[in-house]
Amino acid sequence: MTPRVVFPNRILPYLLLAPQLAITLVFFYLPAVQALYQSMLREDPFGLRSRFVWFANFRKVLADPAYLNALHVTVVFSVATAVVAMGVALLLAVMADKVVRSRGLYRTLLIWPYAVAPAIAGMLFLFMFNPSIGTLAVLLRKAGIAWDPLLNSTDAMVLVVTAAAWKQISYNFLFFVAGLQAIPKSLIEAAAIDGAREVKRFWTIVFPLLAPTTFFLLVINTTYAFFDTFGIIHAVTGGGPGKATETLVYKVYNDGFVNLILGESAAQSVILMIIVIALTAIQFRYVERKVHYG
């Protein structure tokens, strides 16, 4: 029978947890409760008068075509960003894992972009792909590709997805490299001896063993695309042209801080929080079943 381990000091564990609990309470739970309460109020733009309307703000938001458009834009943007960021990061990680000389230098250079702030990343891509002065935009025009993200909605979406994915590739790359290093080389060598080619070894051995890392990054990239890409969209397109790149989080800002529609903006933030929680729960409930942790 395994002996029961008892911590001798009963107060110290609570003291060690207290700072994290306080931060979580002040910066997560209290704002969430405040947003839920404010979402049931109808206020004037200056917040001087308010009236309790229960779920009227939610009904108005969900019936708004502009909000449904933002929901559609968010789905397209999030899926595209996660696929591009994770796919490119996995490719770079596999290539960097094969480098023998200067391996650490290559990995360091690939990790650096993650230190760039989202707004700065957006400005970088805005300058490079600006249809008037952008270097890469000029090259696209010389190649015969019509490029104008300021007027064309598809070009604008491609631009913000590219900027958001570039910002997240370094983070994904770091975890994929760690996952590749944890795979026993003996398994790959045994498959090579049995005659399995490199592509087959990757899909039958390497990628299944990367399933825990891939699942973790899927959750992280989904949350990133929903919340942390606000700075990129604000810097690059401002939700345009014609609200073609206005995601849910940007619409919350636009309605709440620009148009001062406080109650509906709070309702949108609550809906966004519910959507992200539901997506995360679905991923853990169904996607994790296919993850092998052996």
Automatic annotation (TrEMBL):
Gene Ontology CC: plasma membrane
Pfam families, A to Z: BPD_transp_1
InterPro entries linked: MetI-like, MetI-like_sf, UgpAE/MalFG_permease
Record-annotated ABC transmembrane type-1 domain positions: 71-283
Bilayer disposition of the protein: Multi-pass membrane protein
Transport listed as a keyword: yes
Name recorded for this polypeptide: sn-glycerol-3-phosphate transport system permease protein UgpA
Organism: Aquamicrobium defluvii
Taxonomic classification: Bacteria, Pseudomonadati, Pseudomonadota, Alphaproteobacteria, Hyphomicrobiales
